[in-house]
Amino acid sequence: MGGVFRHVLTDADRGHWVESGCIDEETLSLGTGLSWRVKKKTLQGGLQAGIDLVEVDNGVFSFTIVPTRGMGIWKGVYRDIPLGWDSPVRDLVHPAHVEANDRGGLGWLKGFNEWIVRCGMESNGAPTNDVVIDNNGNEATVFLPLHGKVANIPARHVEIRVDLAPPHRITVVGVVDEAMMFGPALRLTSHISTEPGGNSLTISDRVTNLNNRPAEMQMLYHCNYGPPLLEAGSTLVAPVRSVSPRDATAQKGVATYGRFGAPEPGFVEQVYFYELAAKRGSGQTVVLLKNAKGDLGSSLHCSLNQLPCFTLWKNTAATEDGYVTGLEPATNYPNPKPFERKQGRVVRLDAGETRRMDLTVAVHDGRKKVRNVERSIKQIQKNAKARVSKTPIRRISGADQ
Amino acid sequence: MGGVFRHVLTDADRGHWVESGCIDEETLSLGTGLSWRVKKKTLQGGLQAGIDLVEVDNGVFSFTIVPTRGMGIWKGVYRDIPLGWDSPVRDLVHPAHVEANDRGGLGWLKGFNEWIVRCGMESNGAPTNDVVIDNNGNEATVFLPLHGKVANIPARHVEIRVDLAPPHRITVVGVVDEAMMFGPALRLTSHISTEPGGNSLTISDRVTNLNNRPAEMQMLYHCNYGPPLLEAGSTLVAPVRSVSPRDATAQKGVATYGRFGAPEPGFVEQVYFYELAAKRGSGQTVVLLKNAKGDLGSSLHCSLNQLPCFTLWKNTAATEDGYVTGLEPATNYPNPKPFERKQGRVVRLDAGETRRMDLTVAVHDGRKKVRNVERSIKQIQKNAKARVSKTPIRRISGADQ
Amino acid sequence: MGGVFRHVLTDADRGHWVESGCIDEETLSLGTGLSWRVKKKTLQGGLQAGIDLVEVDNGVFSFTIVPTRGMGIWKGVYRDIPLGWDSPVRDLVHPAHVEANDRGGLGWLKGFNEWIVRCGMESNGAPTNDVVIDNNGNEATVFLPLHGKVANIPARHVEIRVDLAPPHRITVVGVVDEAMMFGPALRLTSHISTEPGGNSLTISDRVTNLNNRPAEMQMLYHCNYGPPLLEAGSTLVAPVRSVSPRDATAQKGVATYGRFGAPEPGFVEQVYFYELAAKRGSGQTVVLLKNAKGDLGSSLHCSLNQLPCFTLWKNTAATEDGYVTGLEPATNYPNPKPFERKQGRVVRLDAGETRRMDLTVAVHDGRKKVRNVERSIKQIQKNAKARVSKTPIRRISGADQ
After folding, report:
1. Can you give the pTM of this predicted structure?
2. Domains identified in chain B, total number
3. Cβ of B154 and A46 within 8 Å?
4. Neighbouring chains of A at 3+ CB pairs within 8 Å?
């Protein structure tokens, strides 16, 4: 009753690591009637050599966690519906091959192909110079490359947990340290879980400032969708307080900001910054990406108390160039960090303090299920008047700073 | 008849990788009477840890392909003649240890010790700033480090092919992606092959623009020779339309541009840019490096339609510092990319377009065989008047731009 | 008699590497009555994946050598006394995860957690621009990141040696090449040894200029201590000719320069530059870090002929931020290299020349043993008058250059 099966895959403290293995109904009988499975693999060959994977299959929904890339989630499949997208970067890329500062700080893009990837933790957003206090107590200018480091740091601890009592939640725990002497020492403890037979996964992250001095933190969940969820006529349904374009390019598309076009060679990304509405009291909100017919959707559920900012990245470029949209709940907008700091959107963690962030991602197949989610979004929308700004909003958009 | 034996060593798509193995006359009887062999190894320890090697031995000529370093060719041996050179960099260097942007963009030199190494594919040549179009559709300045990235990207697919019908050509196929989101996505598909008992290897490369938008491409085959092919009195024999020094240093040595000296401590590299002549109609050309006695040579065969530029790098420095010459057929001269672009020497690939480049490298032992190659070069020379410029030619040399 | 047992763990030349293994009294009976042991391990998982370790235990004193990180020494234990410190960087970090030029050249700090780590070999000290001669014979500006490269280069040769004759010295030999074409080619050959039952280890390093042209070299042994050796009331005892603060911050603490405080959140590092006195004739000197009670100490023994400069790094910050002091015998002070060069403190190695450096680190438990060391330091102090400068000394401190 209430027991938990635990299987440690990586434990840097004890020098423990499991190359491959599998836990499933045969090795751990739960009697769910579902062929659930958690499988550990190590990739070899090419850019992916040395990458640890943990494939979770709850019986109807499977997804692949990548401990070596900061506990990102590479791809998912719900029943026969693929989740994720096709990047020009075909393979998972081991962090050893990512030089973050390459190409004007865009090195991160050499490994960018995940369904869900965290951007953080010291910083995220556009490459920028920033001023920090150095080991001598002086101000020093440092360069912050695109979207920070966390996606390219291997987890120091990884374990599988399976609740022995119903609903038998399956959890993969990962601990990722973004640490250096005289710099940030932020620890991500991530619980990624799902229930056998369920249509969702939940990411429960805690970020702890390991230092005995205040630290800054930024976190953005870059949730990326290509077909079939993204197609001509797909829409993003969200409870809106305000939407505004990031820049002049987005401004041009503002009339159809929540609607997606077909793959279009030469399309330049359009980015919209949202202030979302939430359920009264709880801070909980939902956004939904649904296909043209409205019979397939994926929703993101989080609390605005934890993740107050939401960014929509529309990149409906040609299929070969990465036809994709990013739904990005975050602590901030992905502007250069100094701008976000000025706007009060950089999290400050006191010595030893922990910030929690939870995100549930669900898949909905069938018109009825999709409508249910839309209905709850409409319910939330009643709490707020939606305002669509035709031009960038000064306190939100850093593009024209 | 006409069948092909195939053995896949690496396939990133299927998560397949072979740590070690060997195919030879015993495992695949061809009845050639030669003890040919293709051997897969994985190196461990030091800077070379994790490097995949494929050693091809056709019975008289062996060479080592390095899939982990972009399908470069480390060293060769023809009968008892070593091919390649001795770099101050002793070991093969895993790309994880090469920070391209280090030392003013000269990080590439930390892994430079191959007999044949490709420079490309987005760029090659001297480190430089360049202007590209970024994800926002704006011009952005990016830094291009020396000789590009391809030599430090592991192949995502590697396979051995052996023709079952005579002449039983042995081929190693490698696929290397230089790809990033919002940047170049160039795929190299390389076939490196040799015939049992033959004195040559052929590199057949195709570079494909995976994006659905135009891309630029540069490729240079840095073919490097030390002793015994390089020695005091060695010469480069080539069918010349023009030769010109790159800069003031090369200018000083222009009188003996095609002739090599003994190792000389403190020698500063001299670089000569060639416009070669070709066989009438075909575009085919040949250059030959021969030793002082003229009884040993190595020739390069390619088409000026594919590789119109040829650079001779004379670095007859002290043995310990890298006594070496580079014969460099290429799409361009290794000047900073913006200069090459201005001169129309950067390849433009349309969406999905493929560019093919073939290069055959042969070894000739014995005065007679060497003379045969010289004779064919002289034959080509009849088509063109050789012009030696004593000073850099403005449209060719970017050194004084 | 006089024989040596040798066991090669890594030999890049021969493609040899041992994943794990152990040599001890059972496998090689020396009859010392001590349970000595040398154990080879390879770490997996997290940032430490692929790191080779050699754990040496002489029966009473054990320490862990890290061939993959330039033959640094991670941690030690003498009887039950831990040696080293607790960095915010928890795990050993594979060089593949260290981008030296990150964060304004402070990338080195992402892997900094060793007890003893070398800083060098082309350069050490603060990040700086420097002017070198490039491959074209021209002056070129290059950026030198913090503390150089050697700590992030894997050894190309590693072997264990055990003297078969008493006192049965146990030695681990490592060879680390810091080499590139057209740049430094410095080879470190390190012998790290201890005697069964002994309270010390000796690092005997030779650095050879492999090039046939002069080279520069800098080496600093960053020996780092946290508790129990470092605590409120610990002191550094040293035979002093002069001590001076590095900068204004150190200036404030100059009255207690050799005395340590308790962990103090927000403490900014204080650095003192020493000119040490030596034994008459020999150049040998000793410094001692002792705890508050004076019943525990660790001493460093070296020759000022080899390592003329000594730096004390006081970083008595909060425990979580890295409560640590660094004792740093070196060829130079860790100022920007151009300043050190101007002061004549950069070693120049002729073509093929070797520089030897020896450092013995000992542990002393019990008041009596600690006093013995103090006594020998006082003996040396008699040769020199100690001068404490209240302000930075111009020829020593580069902070205000």
Report:
1. 0.97
2. 2
3. yes
4. B, C
